[in-house]
């Protein structure tokens, strides 16, 4: 058993003295069937939370050494007899081998902690299957979303939520209280029909990330192809120069910031569209179209992917001077200058452009890191709504403006140089500016007092064309009431 955090209970035990209505949770005996990884972690956690634990194993002698000395390890039937609440830490495939215990299990609460290997693997959930095998028991589904590791390391260091469902309210309440004493947050998921959904949760692979990842990949592919045409295919066709070496680093490094920048603007674009819709219809009670709803819900993931691309861009940029091609080009330029006897190669404008470009780039990356960190649930939970919206909304918008400055200083006057138009294609950075500048312009327009006021009123419940009751203070300070059209 690990010491430290695990040595003390995470929640103080409630005093139940003199209050017969409260079940004294800590001190209660809890049974665990099975002696595997989950059973062991569960037993350790239960013991540390003040419970008495009795473990039921097919081979108690061999397994006893794996458990804390405070836990009793005995045969399955013996263990079951000593308690009313039993965690079944056994795989579904082996439930039928527990049928011999049916008589001693009558009237007990069985907690099904099992998971499957595939989503919707069986017709009925594991918990429903267990309930069908032991009709004289009350089955509660729970604890399957926490891993053995989370149980060992303490709730502060892992997922704190324990999803629980059962057809029996009393049994569900008992298990919820046990979870609470163990330092977890029980979440009531309703009746047993939710068990299937609870069992699928640990098997889902990043469900909220699919759309943002496809979006990022789509953008990456488009910008990569565009940059490939400009940086590799164009010099080959026009000057028969082989620039394939640029693909792994240069082309990727011009693509990543485009994706990061456009993705960041896509975090703020749905908010602009939502505000336009509210202004147009004069109400906040009209449902947004599904695609906009989905987009609004995925802003966090889109923002995190934007940060990921920006961070990669920073690393790639730092590595640019390490390339052999870069060294050859430097030497080539130096030799050319020596041959031409050029002594002063300092171009003041270029120096300033680069200094500003790098500086604003670093600031933008710093702000993006802040946004990414504060979007993590553990950090977000420690912020109040005003702090969270200040960071995500105001600082996020500032990050977008600074990224725009970074892009503009990168481009400088290149947009006006006709040599930059390869196959008549404008430089990539000019394309990326389109969506972010639209968002920035829209935000500036929304901040005009006349529009801001209207938007604010709509968001506080005002509706166009609706008659509302009003209350006005009279000259004497008394209040008179009446009805008026709210858009007058
Ligand atoms: P495990 O290490 O393989 O342990 C399973 C235990 O089941 C064995 O130690 C065995 O204990 C017992 N058992 C009883 N009858 C059995 C039989 N007929 N054949 C084989 N074993 C039998 O598995 P685990 O990782 O602890 O998982 C146990 C349950 O917890 C599973 O349903 C799993 O889905 C769930 N779960 C596990 C985790 C995790 O992180 N490991 C997380 C969430 C949920 P005895 O030999 O002492 O009888």
TrEMBL record:
Main localization of the protein described in the UniProt heading: membrane
Family: Belongs to the STEAP family.
Domain Ferric oxidoreductase residue range list: 259-401
A GO CC term attached to the entry: plasma membrane
Presence of the UniProt keyword Hydrolase in the record: no
Domain Pyrroline-5-carboxylate reductase catalytic N-terminal intervals: 29-116
Any Gene Ontology biological process: copper ion import
Required cofactor names: FAD; heme b
Native organism: Podilymbus podiceps (Pied-billed grebe)
Membrane association type: Multi-pass membrane protein
Name of the protein in question: STEA3 Metalloreductase
Region (Disordered): 1-20
Sorted UniProt keywords: Copper, Endosome, FAD, Flavoprotein, Ion transport, Iron, Iron transport, Membrane, Metal-binding, Oxidoreductase, Transmembrane, Transmembrane helix, Transport
TM ranges: 211-229, 259-281, 302-323, 356-376, 388-409, 429-451
Gene Ontology molecular function: any one: metal ion binding
Keyword NAD: no
Subcellular location: Endosome membrane
Swiss-Prot/TrEMBL catalytic activity: 2 Cu(+) + NADP(+) + H(+) = 2 Cu(2+) + NADPH; 2 Fe(2+) + NADP(+) + H(+) = 2 Fe(3+) + NADPH
InterPro entries: Fe3_Rdtase_TM_dom (IPR013130), NAD(P)-bd_dom_sf (IPR036291), P5C_Rdtase_cat_N (IPR028939), STEAP_metalloreductase (IPR051267)
Entries under SUPFAM superfamilies matching the protein: NAD(P)-binding Rossmann-fold domains
